[in-house]
Specification:
The complex is a heterotrimer of chains A (about 375), B (about 260) and C (about 300).
Chain A: E1 6-16, E2 22-33, E3 38-42, H1 49-57, E4 64-69, E5 72-73, E6 84-87, H2 99-110, H3 114-127, H4 143-155, E7 161-165, H5 173-190, E8 193-198, H6 201-207, E9 210-215, E10 218-223, H7 225-230, H8 235-240, E11 245-254, E12 259-263, E13 269-274, E14 283-288, E15 294-296, E16 312-322, E17 326-334, E18 337-344, E19 361-365, E20 372-375
Parallel strand pairs in A: 3-8, 3-9, 6-7, 7-8, 13-20
Antiparallel strand pairs in A: 1-2, 1-4, 4-5, 9-10, 11-12, 11-14, 12-13, 14-20, 15-19, 16-17, 16-19, 17-18
Chain B: H1 8-30, H2 48-54, H3 57-90, H4 96-108, H5 111-124, H6 131-154, H7 160-167, H8 172-201, H9 204-209, H10 217-227, H11 231-258
Helix pairs in contact in B: 1-11, 2-11, 3-6, 3-8, 3-10, 4-6, 6-8, 7-8
Chain C: H1 15-22, H2 24-53, E1 57-58, E2 64-65, H3 71-76, H4 79-112, H5 115-130, H6 133-144, H7 149-156, H8 170-194, H9 198-206, H10 211-222, H11 224-240, H12 243-248, H13 256-265, H14 270-294, H15 299-302
Antiparallel strand pairs in C: 1-2
Helix pairs in contact in C: 1-2, 2-14, 4-8, 4-11, 5-8, 6-8, 8-11, 9-10, 11-14, 13-14
Classes of the chains: A alpha+beta (about 375), B mainly alpha (about 260), C mainly alpha (about 300).
């Protein structure tokens, strides 16, 4: 067994543009995916994630660079000779075949005996909880069931790697959440490497061991969900994963662990942690997630925070939105900057005075570890 | 459009229009059972004209010719036309636009022009007119219609089912036979049905490309009609209408059993 | 492993297969080539031959003298032939108008019936359409001829004293043509009428349009593509038609189609027939281009 289940080495894919010229769908992507890993390719539509997956499957060939599956370079190997299988976004079930025939198709192509085919197909159908559905046609099944058939059809081949192209995209939200957990459990059960393409950051965070965030053909960051969320390496990743506030400023001083940024448009200074190398005077972006700020009334001393401590500022409430679990507040941070702040509703009360009101003058604090300093991009 | 019931005047109009469409055909059928030969006046019921028809050697020969031509040209034009539909719907290649326009030509040029051009061509290369030349000509005008029908069917074709087949280990040929062809089969069949009927029905092009001994049913009916109004033609027409009706009905029922697939 | 490059994939056994697999262009060309080759021999070359023929001259025994000249075309400018041409245009135009007048309300009706009934009504339109067209002409001959159904009926009720001579007149030709081509108009009209969403008519009503205005300003313009497709499907074959005039017009009615047929089979003046064919072809091409410029051409033609 080679070191990686799948490796993309400096892969470029260009398509001819119908209007002339070329479009770069994947731009010098390098990825290493470990055996047994649940790996997600995450990004907005058109970011190159699906093209990358299709190149692993063999539906497209790289313009340059190389893809290795279990250490073997794939070159222009056609899909039917690759040890990977795909679950398609549209499921791509064969409408003219029964469920059984759909699942058995891949085994038939391998020349597996009739008896073994029957056994393996039934086991696969049982695994996705479709026992006894074998004689139905795809269109007699619900969307969720069709999804499971597509999964069984791919898994029955016991591929080295399973490729999933937004497999839950067509399902409604509730079913989707259920299937996310099921898929994750299934992956742990079969121990096969999963490469999962999605544009849904929450889905990627829920299921993945590691995530590669892509945009405009570039792989921006590869890491575990926690790293991607808590320590994004650029403004795009911070913005795409979850919600955040951006503030703009200039590096004023650099400490070994912290950086002080003086914000544009106000006298205020923020202390945060540097994600990257910085020099004094550099233009930077500051990212602070809305749930990582706290609002206090006019007595910050009560909880041991003094106005002279770092990252503690007077603010004004602009509006609040009660959404049940949270209250989402927009504050005027001064200097024309508005920030989103989310507060959990710890207390159950109908007393309107317990909630903030527009126009209230209050304080906000944020811990330096929650203030992320990112390089300003062009 | 709206689910509301159409206005009264419109319903009466439609009724009259359908009467206009069916009245002549009905007359045709009724008088095939009439004992009177010359006048269109009901005299009495008889099956004698059917007996005459079934003993008419010319009609029998013409039927045989018509069926040979229709089957041969349908099979060949369906194969060629389906390949063209696949090419036009799935690929881009040099000369794409030219190929597409060329396929429209037989659909829009007047039949008489196509007929005389084929006649002149066959004469100039020294091909004897007969069943062969008729069949060659029928294939030519059928290919575009098959292509049009199959292309329409391919329009909503989900290419990922082919990728799925390849992904599961089928090579290109197996993918085509096991997945692509069965999926587009309804379209191919309706293309074939259209080709068959067009061939069966064709008078003009057949007229120019036929030789001695290769008379087809439409040619035969034409000469019968031209000479005299005889109930034998009525009997033949009745059988023809009936056959068409049954074939179409089967087609409709088959399509209806397929339709849930289309609503996807 | 690092030294290996993309060329190390398992090489297919035949380089031809490999080339096909790797070139979508080659795949497309391979699939289209039978059609192109077939139509080259049965469409392109024959039509080119007609073009060439039209510039030749008829010899004394119906043979062809190969000397390029414009004689046939100047001969076509003779009033006799111009009259035939004008008459053909008129007949084709009247046929088209006739099918629209009869077919539009019918297509409109079918489009407004509940979806389940629609297929039945369409089926009823299709049955005569799939029935041989000479049979359909024959049915009208039975009705229209001197001792035919119409005359016997009118005589019986005393509406007329002597039988009317309808058959073998231009009117008979028109009646036959409209009946022949009606389905070609109804089906594309239906296709475009059926696509009109009820919400658009509701919007028109909501904005104050009375039903007639809504029809004029919304339904009619939206059904125009269908009407254009239908007109092409009716006008072009009507222009070249010679069977209906043959059977229903007697010797009195001669259209361009009859002229061409006669030149090829009776007069055996192929060059002149070829020139007449070219004229017909050019007229129909102009007509088609004129109409297709104004609306997309395709879906409606498919029925």
């Amino acid at each position: 067994m080679s070191q990686f289940a799948v490796e993309l080495r400096d892969v470029v894919k260009r398509f001819p543009n119908p209007g002339g010229g070329e479009i770069t769908a994947v731009n010098h992507a390098t990825l290493q995916i470990n055996h047994g890993e649940f790996f997600s390719l995450l990004g907005p539509s058109g970011c190159g994630k699906t093209t990358s997956l299709r190149m692993v499957a063999g539906f497209e060939w790289p313009t340059s660079g190389e893809i290795f599956i279990d250490g073997k370079p794939m070159g222009r190997t056609p899909p039917f000779l690759r040890p990977v299988n795909t679950v398609f976004q549209s499921y791509a079930l064969f409408q003219h075949m029964t469920i059984f025939q759909n699942v058995a198709f891949g085994l038939e192509m391998e020349g597996v005996s009739r008896e073994e085919t029957r056994r393996r197909v039934e086991a696969a159908l049982e695994m996705v909880q479709l026992t006894g559905m074998g004689s139905r046609k795809p269109r007699q099944l619900s969307g969720g069931q069709q999804q499971r058939v597509a999964l069984a059809r791919a898994l029955v081949k016991r591929p080295a790697v399973l490729l999933l192209d937004e497999p839950l995209g067509a399902l409604d939200l509730k079913l989707r959440k259920e299937m996310q957990l099921e898929l994750k459990a299934l992956q742990e059960q079969v121990g096969i490497t999963f490469i999962y393409v999605t544009h849904d950051q929450e889905e990627a965070l829920t299921m993945s061991d590691r995530i590669a965030v892509m945009n405009k053909g570039n792989v921006l960051q590869i890491g575990a969900p926690v790293e991607i969320y808590e320590r994004p390496n650029c403004r795009f990743v911070a913005d795409f994963i979850g919600e955040t506030n951006f503030l703009f400023g200039k590096v004023k001083a650099i400490d070994p662990d912290f950086v002080i940024v003086s914000l544009h448009g106000s006298e205020r200074e923020l202390v945060g942690i540097p994600l990257g190398k910085f020099y004094s005077g550099q233009e930077v972006v500051v990212s602070v997630r809305p749930e990582k700020m706290r609002i206090f009334d006019d007595t910050p001393l009560k909880i041991g925070v003094t106005p002279n401590q770092p990252n503690c500022f007077p603010i004004r409430i602009i509006n609040t939105m009660y959404i049940g679990s949270d209250t989402r507040i927009v504050i005027d941070f001064g200097g024309g900057t508005q920030l989103k702040v989310w507060e959990q509703n710890h207390l159950s009360t109908l007393d309107t005075l317990a909630y903030y009101a527009p126009g209230q003058e209050l304080w906000v604090t944020m811990r330096p570890e929650n203030v992320l300093i990112l390089p300003q991009e062009e | 459009m709206s689910e509301k019931k159409p206005a009264l005047w419109l319903r009466i109009y439609a009724l009259l229009a359908y009467a206009y469409i069916y009245f002549p055909i009905l007359i045709l059928i009724i008088f095939s059972f009439n004992t009177q030969k010359i006048n269109v006046r009901w005299e009495g019921f008889t099956l004698q004209w059917y007996k005459v028809l079934f003993n008419d050697q010319n009609v029998i020969l013409a039927t045989r010719n018509t069926l040979i031509i229709a089957f041969t040209s349908t099979i060949i034009s369906t194969v060629i036309g389906t390949l063209a539909a696949l090419a036009l719907q799935r690929y881009r290649f040099p000369g794409y636009g030219a190929a597409e326009s060329l396929l429209y030509v037989p659909v829009i040029i007047p039949e008489v022009v196509m007929g005389i051009s084929l006649l002149a061509f066959f004469a100039s290369i020294g091909l004897t007119l007969g069943l062969g030349t008729i069949t060659l000509s029928h294939i030519a005008f059928n290919i575009p219609f098959v292509t049009l029908v199959v292309r329409a069917r391919l329009h909503g074709f989900d290419k990922s089912i082919e990728e799925a087949a390849m992904d599961l280990g089928a090579n290109e040929l197996t993918t085509f036979w096991r997945v692509t062809l069965p999926t587009i089969m309804p379209g191919v069949l309706s293309g074939a049905l259209l080709a068959f009927t067009l061939s069966l029905d064709d008078y003009v092009i057949t007229y120019f490309t036929a030789g001695p001994g290769s008379t087809t049913l439409p040619l035969r009916i034409f000469s019968m009609v031209r000479f005299a109004v005889t109930p034998e033609v009525n009997a033949l027409s009745t059988l023809w209408v009936l056959t068409v009706f049954i074939v179409l009905l089967i087609g409709q029922i088959a399509q209806r059993s397929q339709s849930p697939q289309q609503t996807r | 492993m690092a030294a290996e490059t993309s060329s190390v994939s398992p090489a297919p056994r035949f380089s031809l297969i490999r080339q096909l697999r790797e070139s979508p262009h080659a795949q497309g060309l391979a699939l289209i080539s039978p059609t192109l080759i077939y139509l080259l021999f049965t469409l392109v070359l024959p039509l080119l031959l007609v073009v060439v023929l039209s510039f030749m001259t008829r010899g004394p025994y119906g043979n062809i003298i190969y000397r390029v000249n414009l004689g046939n075309y100047t001969r076509l400018m003779d009033t006799l032939y111009l009259r035939i041409l004008g008459y053909s245009l008129l007949t084709a135009a009247l046929t088209t108008v006739g099918t629209i007048l009869i077919g539009y309300p019918l297509a409109y009706y079918i489009a407004r019936t509940p979806p389940r009934q629609r297929s039945v009504y369409l089926f009823l339109i299709l049955v005569p359409f799939w029935t041989n067209f000479i049979i359909r002409i024959y049915a009208w001959i039975m009705i229209l001829r001197t001792e035919g159904l119409l005359n016997s009926f009118l005589l019986k009720i005393g509406f007329i004293q002597a039988p009317l001579d309808i058959l073998y007149t231009p009117t008979a030709v028109l009646i036959g043509m409209v009946y022949e081509f009606l389905p070609f108009m109804v089906l594309p009209l239906y296709t475009s009428l059926e696509k009109i969403e009820p919400a658009q008519l509701e919007a028109a009503a909501d904005l104050g349009a009375r039903p007639f205005m809504a029809f004029l300003r919304v339904t009619l313009p939206l059904s125009l593509p269908g009407m254009i497709a239908g007109s092409i499907l009716v006008f072009i074959p009507a222009m070249g038609m010679f069977v209906v005039p043959d059977l229903m017009g007697g010797a009195k009615t001669i259209l361009v189609g009859n002229l061409i047929r006669n030149q090829f089979l009776t007069a055996r003046d192929w060059p002149f027939g070829a020139a007449a064919s070219m004229l017909l072809l050019i007229l129909t091409l102009i007509f088609t281009l004129f109409y297709t410029r104004r609306a997309g051409f395709g879906e409606e033609l498919l029925v």
